[in-house]
Predict the structure.
Amino acid sequence: MKTGDTIQIRQHEMILPVDGEKQPIAADPPIYGANPTPIDFWLYARVQEVLEDGRVRVVVAHPGNREHGAEKIVSPTETDARGNVIHNVRTKAEVEALASATHHSNPQWNARLQQHFKIQAERLS
């Protein structure tokens, strides 16, 4: 990863449905239910600088997202309270690996997921 690259950064959100809402919340795949649901979105961002400590300074380049145009400093990984590693950055190579991996036992659903990642990888550098 270097200055000028387009990468993806994680946006962690809590989805809060409207009380009594029976329609799925807009997400892929759709989210049903009345309880708050955590979900991760992956935003496109342009690397402005790779800092000495490994963090990256980026500008979000994801039109339509409220973070579009925001400058952020992102740590590529972090550890949650249970000791699990959380990835906050995805490079083109990482998304290409997702595009060739098996994600689901249903071949049609798996092909759809692989195509989803392939399209994302095409926008990265």
Q: What stands out?
A: The helical segments are 92-100, 107-122.
